[in-house]
C-alpha cells in the first residue's frame, strides 16, 4: 500500500509563513521602519511650526526675545513659559515619531518630558549675512556643538537622540522653516554667542 503525500500546507509550514509575513510587515511599516519614520518626521515638522507660532507671539510681547530661564538645565524649563498663555496645546511638544508620553492640555511642561531640544538665547531675526539660526530640533545625542558629518541624532535607534529611531531628525529655523537631517549632520549649524543648547529630560 502506497502512502500518498497530502496536498496543501502542514500546520508548521503555515505558522512559519505567517511569522515571516509578520516580520517583513514590521520591518516595512513598524515603528522602526524608514517608511514609518518619514511620515512621522512630517508630522514632527508640523509640530515644530506650531511651536514657532507660539514663539512668534511670545517674542512680540517681549521685544523680540524668546523664552529664557536662568540656569535652565533642560528644554522643558524655558519652553514652559509658552504654556498656557501662548499655547494650550501641549501635544505639539511631543514628537509623534518617538515614544514620549502625551502631556495633558495646558499642564506645565516642567512636570513632564518633552521631545525637543531648544537653543536658548536665539532670536527670530536673521543674521547679518541673511542666514537663519536654529531655534529647535528633535532631541539630540548631546548638547555639544556639531560639525557637518558628526552624529547629532542616534546612529542605531537607541537613546539618546532617537525621536525618529536611526533616521535623523528635524530642525526649526528662525524664519519658521523646517529642515531635515540624517543622523549625521548634513549642513552647518551656526549659533550666536551666548546661546545654550538644552536637551529635554533624559
Offer a few descriptive terms.
3 helices, 202 residues, alpha+beta, five-stranded antiparallel β-sheet
SSE map:
Elements: H1 11-29, H2 34-61, H3 76-79, E1 116-120, E2 134-138, E3 169-173, E4 178-181, E5 196-198
Q: From N to C, what is the helix and strand string?
A: HHHEEEEE
The total beta strand count reads 5
The outline comes out as elongated
Spatial strand order of the main sheet: 4-3-2-1-5
The average pLDDT score comes to 89
Number of separate domains: 1
Task: Walk me through what this model shows.
It is elongated and about 80 Å long. The chain is α+β, with helices and mostly antiparallel strands. The longest helix has 28 residues. The protein has a five-stranded antiparallel sheet, with helices on one face. The N and C termini lie far apart (71 Å). The protein has one domain.
Task: Put the structure in a nutshell.
With 202 residues, the protein is of the alpha+beta class. It contains three helices and five strands.
Amino acid at each position: 500500500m502506497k502512502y500518498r503525500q497530502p496536498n496543501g500546507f502542514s500546520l508548521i509550514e503555515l505558522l512559519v509563513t505567517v511569522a515571516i509575513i509578520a516580520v517583513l510587515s514590521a520591518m516595512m511599516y513598524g515603528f522602526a521602519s524608514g517608511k514609518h519614520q518619514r511620515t512621522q518626521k512630517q508630522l514632527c515638522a508640523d509640530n515644530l511650526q506650531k511651536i514657532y507660532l507660539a514663539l512668534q507671539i511670545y517674542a512680540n510681547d517681549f521685544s523680540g526675545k524668546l523664552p529664557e530661564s536662568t540656569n535652565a538645565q533642560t528644554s522643558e524649563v524655558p519652553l514652559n513659559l509658552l504654556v498656557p498663555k501662548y499655547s494650550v496645546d501641549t501635544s505639539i511638544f511631543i514628537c509623534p515619531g518617538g515614544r514620549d508620553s502625551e502631556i495633558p492640555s495646558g499642564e506645565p511642561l516642567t512636570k513632564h518630558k518633552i521631545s525637543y531640544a531648544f537653543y536658548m538665547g536665539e532670536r527670530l531675526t536673521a543674521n547679518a549675512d541673511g542666514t537663519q539660526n536654529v531655534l529647535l530640533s528633535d532631541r539630540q545625542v548631546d548638547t555639544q556643538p556639531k560639525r557637518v558629518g558628526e552624529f547629532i541624532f542616534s546612529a542605531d535607534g537607541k537613546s539618546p537622540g532617537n525621536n525618529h529611531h536611526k533616521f535623523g531628525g528635524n530642525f526649526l529655523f528662525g524664519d519658521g522653516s523646517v529642515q531635515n537631517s540624517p543622523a549625521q549632520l548634513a549642513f552647518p549649524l551656526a549659533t550666536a554667542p551666548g546661546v545654550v543648547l538644552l536637551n529635554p529630560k533624559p
